[in-house]
């Protein structure tokens, strides 16, 4: 059994999750402070990939990163890097579809934070950076961790946008999701079922982690 799809899926999901973690926290922290109208508009824009069909997301990514598009052509001519139909092309797709989950979860955690704790720290002369990492983040950690796990799971299971921007090439761009489809399409049901079982195990572990984090969040508070 060729384990490349698992390895490729895991590295794509991990890289995407790391990017989404910081992007989601940054966006959630600053957008939560904005006026309601502005916040509502940005919410729609940033969470749109969550409700759009994945193939539509993939289409927009092709319009942006395609070899004949300005951005894709720039990287190809100046760096010799083709942004589509490579294993790392799937990272772009995974970031776009996983970001809304991280953003919405982190924003909810920040909005439920007791601001009196931050004000108290300010009266003691602490900087906003210190307050963010030493007060706000520890109090919101369960929600942020839950968002991170969900973003990882979404990136790991991404198929629609990934198949459009990265395609399927065994040993190069294959992921678990695209491998299951290709094996089924070629009537290799046994091979497809093996990868389905692998995916089920990973998904079960992710759901267990999310449930544990939710229980901790309900039971605990700020340290």
From TrEMBL:
<keyword id="KW-0500">Molybdenum</keyword>
<dbReference type="Pfam" id="PF00528">
    <property type="entry name" value="BPD_transp_1"/>
</dbReference>
<keyword id="KW-1133">Transmembrane helix</keyword>
<feature type="transmembrane region" description="Helical">
    <location>
        <begin position="44"/>
        <end position="65"/>
    </location>
</feature>
<protein>
    <recommendedName>
        <fullName>Molybdenum transport system permease</fullName>
    </recommendedName>
</protein>
<keyword id="KW-0813">Transport</keyword>
<dbReference type="InterPro" id="IPR035906">
    <property type="entry name" value="MetI-like_sf"/>
</dbReference>
<dbReference type="InterPro" id="IPR000515">
    <property type="entry name" value="MetI-like"/>
</dbReference>
<comment type="similarity">
    <text>Belongs to the binding-protein-dependent transport system permease family. CysTW subfamily.</text>
</comment>
<feature type="domain" description="ABC transmembrane type-1">
    <location>
        <begin position="6"/>
        <end position="214"/>
    </location>
</feature>
<comment type="function">
    <text>Part of the binding-protein-dependent transport system for molybdenum; probably responsible for the translocation of the substrate across the membrane.</text>
</comment>
<keyword id="KW-0472">Membrane</keyword>
<keyword id="KW-0812">Transmembrane</keyword>
<feature type="transmembrane region" description="Helical">
    <location>
        <begin position="85"/>
        <end position="103"/>
    </location>
</feature>
<feature type="transmembrane region" description="Helical">
    <location>
        <begin position="12"/>
        <end position="32"/>
    </location>
</feature>
<keyword id="KW-1003">Cell membrane</keyword>
<dbReference type="InterPro" id="IPR011867">
    <property type="entry name" value="ModB_ABC"/>
</dbReference>
<feature type="transmembrane region" description="Helical">
    <location>
        <begin position="195"/>
        <end position="213"/>
    </location>
</feature>
